[in-house]
Design goal:
GO molecular function: beta-glucuronidase activity; carbohydrate binding
Strand order of the largest sheet: 1-13-6-10
Strand content: 35-45%
GO biological process, one term: carbohydrate metabolic process
Helix content: under 10%
Order of helices and strands: EEEEHHEEEEEEEEEEEEEEEEEEEE
Largest sheet: 4 strands, antiparallel
InterPro entries: Galactose-bd-like_sf (IPR008979), Glyco_hydro_2_N (IPR006104), Ig-like_fold (IPR013783)
Shape: flat
Number of strands: 24
CATH topology of the largest domain: Jelly Rolls
Protein name: Glycosyl hydrolases family 2 sugar binding domain-containing protein
Mean pLDDT: 87
Oligomer: single chain
Number of domains: 2
CATH architecture of the largest domain: Sandwich
Distance between the termini: 23 Å
Family: Belongs to the glycosyl hydrolase 2 family.
Length: 307
């Protein structure tokens, strides 16, 4: 799964903004639309968005909805709806049809919506989330409903953690499109270096009828034709002078991968960042390029603005 990009063969639409939002006060499906109790920002946690205790401590289902449209000019393309993460459980509906569900949150989910989206007109997107915990979820519910006195006593809910298990559409929501003929599904970059010379191996998986994969290192303009075998590709490129990544010196290199047909028409393109570095564990030390590394910011979440 690749993070969305906008380039010549790929289009990208951000669905951030204000969505409609109600509690799920009755066990029913709200996929035909609903009268919103509130409007809430996406992405955010509704537990932090409102002052009312009924919203802050709500531990059952809730719904999000919004209207969306998609340009008719992209009607021949593959169209994908992507959620960065939905906490904790999620069911996603488009135009009253279930696209799919997901449990555990924290990781991206995607749905191919080409067959369900109405091009050039309105579409209804509805998402149900809940943060009901159990002994099998991450985070876990507590073994006891009345914990012993101590650090976690008297909390709501009864969990062995020191914060409320927020529920929400937590990370970016977007629609992106690729060619329906061929597209990249994953890209991996592996590096090694000796003194000043480096080798980068670029590999990946694609779908469709592409017959060629071209790889270019943008910083050096070096190129290679990748070997293709049953939906996989791989190439190795040499870089004469590498610049290492280090703390305070975040040097990044970039590889451009292009899928092509026999006539060299571009089906898909993706830029993959990579670095040259080595990381080792030696006793109680972490070594970055053979030098001790001191880590700060332990357990800060990814939304912490200084990370």
């Amino acid at each position: 799964m690749l993070y969305p990009q906008r380039n010549f063969p790929r289009e990208f639409f951000d669905l951030h903004g204000i969505w409609n939002f109600p509690h799920e006060k009755e066990e029913t499906v709200y996929t035909s639309g609903f009268t919103p109790e509130k409007q809430v920002a996406v992405r955010s946690s509704y537990n932090e968005a409102f002052d009312e205790e009924d919203f802050r401590k709500w531990m059952k289902g809730c719904w999000y909805s919004r209207e969306l449209s998609h340009p008719r000019v992209l009607q021949s393309e593959r169209v994908v709806l992507r959620f960065g993460s939905d906490i904790y459980k999620a069911q996603v509906y488009l135009n009253r049809k279930l696209l799919g569900d997901h449990e555990t949150g924290y990781i991206p989910i995607e749905f191919d919506i080409k067959e369900l989206i109405h091009f050039g007109e309105g579409n209804l997107l509805c998402v149900r989330t809940d943060n009901v915990l159990s002994l099998e979820t991450v985070l876990m519910d507590n073994l006891k409903k009345h914990p012993e006195a101590g650090h976690f006593a008297g909390q709501y809910p009864y969990t062995p953690i020191d914060f409320l298990p927020y529920a929400c559409i937590q990370h970016p929501v977007s629609i992106y499109s690729t060619s329906s003929e061929a597209w990249l599904e994953s890209v991996t970059a592996q590096t090694q270096y000796e003194v000043h010379t480096g080798i980068v191996r670029i590999s990946g998986i694609f779908q469709g009828s592409a017959t060629h994969a071209e790889i270019m290192i943008l910083e050096t303009s070096s190129t290679a034709e990748a070997e293709i075998n049953e939906g996989h590709f791989e190439a190795e490129l040499k870089i004469d002078v590498v610049t290492l990544w280090n703390v305070g010196e975040p040097n990044l290199d970039r590889a451009s991968i292009r899928l092509k047909d026999e006539s060299k028409q571009i089906y898909d393109e993706y830029d993959q960042l990579f670095v040259f570095q080595t990381v080792q564990i030696e006793g109680n030390r972490i070594l970055l390029d053979d030098k001790p590394l001191y880590l700060q910011g332990f357990e800060r979440h990814d939304e912490y603005r200084h990370l």
